[in-house]
Specification:
Blueprint (H helix, E strand, L loop, with lengths): L1 H16 L28 E4 L4 H11 L1 H7 L1 E5 L1 H9 L4 E7 L5 H9 L5 E4 L1 H7 L8 E6 L15 E6 L4 H13 L4 E5 L8 H6 L9 E4 L2 H14 L4 E5 L5 E2 L9 E5 L8 H6 L2 E4 L13 H19 L11
Parallel strand pairs: 1-4, 3-4, 6-7, 6-11, 7-8, 9-11, 9-12, 10-12
Antiparallel strand pairs: 2-5, 3-5
């Protein structure tokens, strides 16, 4: 007490004489110790949500209403892999949502280091209602959508593009994104009316690959053909390979080592005729002659096609230049 009274008297005397005021505490004592990063690691502005108010209802809408998602230009994300990859790939996290209880070091670190517009602290009950997991997520996020624009900058020197026409199943789309990422595709293009790319089920089933792989929705096929024309100028050997359940050229009989776009059709109706007409080759995956199945699941078929492409390209690659291997 005497120490602080003395400090007060010194400040008063200095104020009366017009001299500069010294620090009242030793270096670092105001922040709980000498920690130079303390100022950097400060939580963003946080709003507490105790009821199902309009802000909470907006979070619910982002999960369930496609039109309102696009009107807001943002979508709902949960899951450690997804959030980590979104941050690592530079997606704009607008808000984090977290509960009132003790957070893990992972969640606490993100709240301190990721710049957001505003974060929200919710009651345990509201967090449980929002979470799509059996064990309620401790951290969820609202992330800004990215512009849909076909860019040649997405492409490697030997382009590998996948097109998915009118996807009708959320799980298949998420799995397609994951397979494209795992097997080295440069870009996934979505065409026609199908499931929503930003649906939470799609994001979850993509297992983090959603934020790594460029995925572009194309509503006007003229934009697609203009993009293809630009790629062909740069890569004269570029070819479009369509897929079909009908007996055509076996996939292993097609040269996939050159620049390529693989076109994958809708789960029920297959590839539309306009796209088939634009293909240089239509290929298929041979099936057992006595098989009851008439076709593969679309994401499985796409994975087989993409694996064949990477197998062929790996066979031409110099020894020691292989990619990751996994089971």
């Amino acid at each position: 007490m005497e120490r602080y009274l003395s400090a007060f008297q010194n400040v008063t005397a200095l104020f009366m004489t017009g001299r500069r005021l010294p620090r009242l505490f030793p270096d670092g004592e105001e922040t709980g110790g000498n920690r130079p990063e303390a100022a950097k690691r400060t939580r963003m502005a946080t709003t507490d949500i105790y009821t199902r108010n309009n802000i909470y209802q907006h979070f619910q809408v982002l999960k369930t209403n496609r039109n309102k998602r696009y009107k807001a230009g943002e979508f709902f994300v949960e899951g450690v892999r997804s959030i980590n990859e979104a941050v690592r790939q530079g997606w704009h996290v607008k808000s984090f949502l977290f509960g009132t209880g003790r957070l893990s070091d992972w969640a606490d670190n993100l709240l301190k280091t990721v710049s957001t517009e505003v974060n929200y602290r919710l009651t345990a009950e509201l967090m449980e209602e929002l979470s799509g997991k059996t064990d309620t997520s401790e951290l969820m996020a609202v992330i800004e959508m990215r512009e849909d624009k076909l860019k040649e900058s997405y492409l490697s020197e030997n382009p590998f593009i996948v097109l998915f026409d009118r996807p009708s199943n959320k799980g298949n789309l998420g799995t397609m994104i994951r397979s494209c990422d795992a097997l080295g595709a440069d870009l996934l293009i979505m065409t026609g009316h199908g499931v929503d790319l930003y649906d939470p089920d799609v994001v979850v089933s993509a297992m983090g690959s959603f934020f790594k792989l460029p995925v572009v929705r194309v509503s006007d096929n003229n934009d697609l053909w203009n993009f293809v024309a630009d790629v062909r100028k740069r890569c004269p050997a570029f070819q479009i390979i369509g897929t079909t359940a009908h007996k055509q050229v076996p996939v292993y009989g097609v040269d996939l080592t050159a620049p390529v776009m693989l076109m994958i059709g809708n789960e029920t109706m297959g590839l539309n005729q306009n796209f088939k007409d634009m293909c240089d080759v239509l290929c298929t995956i041979p099936m057992a002659e006595d098989s009851y199945a008439s076709s593969f699941n679309v994401s499985c078929a796409a994975s087989v096609m993409m694996y064949e492409l990477t197998r062929q390209r790996s066979a031409k690659r110099p020894v020691g230049a292989g990619g990751k291997e996994t089971i």
